[in-house]
């Protein structure tokens, strides 16, 4: 009799667990970034931001329309390559993800956005700054950082007015990001009364810049601007030093990482580099950002590189939109996401405009001293 009772109780428990498991819905959030290649440290930083958000949300417990939700991160590697980026995007679509946060680079984000748009899957970019991304007429594209018009424009004005850079040389890596930010920088320099001595081109895979830099040295620019990523900027700074080029070195968010001093080695003098991160917090918000960075370091044993906090906010905002809409189905929560107003994240307050761009996006200007980033100012 006792044995029968035990069996009955066990059967009832198994049935209960089965019902609970059936009620728990899995919601898949896709993330894509360069987890291999020269800027893998930036891709991993972004992916860790997504992982941290999902871990915290699962621990807290998410309920959508009365049902417990289990969030699952589906992470893909695009190696910063547009072709691999579209392949990764298609893979996420095939896996029926509920939303995507990524990609990191504009050059991978823009072609991938067409695939997500055709599938009706919302995509929030935490770091792609090329304006084209949100100007293609897609209803599924969103961005939580300022774009290149603001980024390059601010740096161009700063180079002429604050760095007294009347004579400027420009280099870009021919990627969608590097070319875009360099063009906006150049426009702003000219508008501010500066002179562009020349615009040279390299690639995001190059390691030898001696011919370009030798030519630039002869022109004696006050400022050298580089549109590209830190993996190229580091060796470029080393070669500038070896040639005796002492110009200020200015770049966008692609070079504005905590890894740059390691990549540049002794090629970077204190205060020589000025860069801008396409985001920024002020006042009381700084405490929240510092708390995030401390939790991030405790969780992953590494400092935030650049955009992990923006990925973290993008994941949380996406899930909050699902909760508000009462559905994780892309078609149902997409209109709620599009109407985001005043969402408070660790990176500040997020409100989307009609294109899906963040309104009144901030920029933070930095330099480097003693091998660490040193904030100059937050500008809007």
UniProtKB/TrEMBL annotation:
Keywords: Amino-acid transport, Signal, Transport. Gene3D superfamilies: 3.40.50.2300. Residues 27-371 form the Leucine-binding protein domain. CDD domains: PBP1_ABC_LIVBP-like (cd06342). It comes from the Bacteria. GO terms for biological process: amino acid transport. Residues 1-22 form the signal peptide. Belongs to the leucine-binding protein family. PANTHER family: AMINO ACID BINDING PROTEIN, LEU/ILE/VAL-BINDING ABC TRANSPORTER SUBUNIT. This is ABC transporter substrate-binding protein. It comes from Caenimonas koreensis DSM 17982. The lineage of its organism: Bacteria, Pseudomonadati, Pseudomonadota, Betaproteobacteria, Burkholderiales.
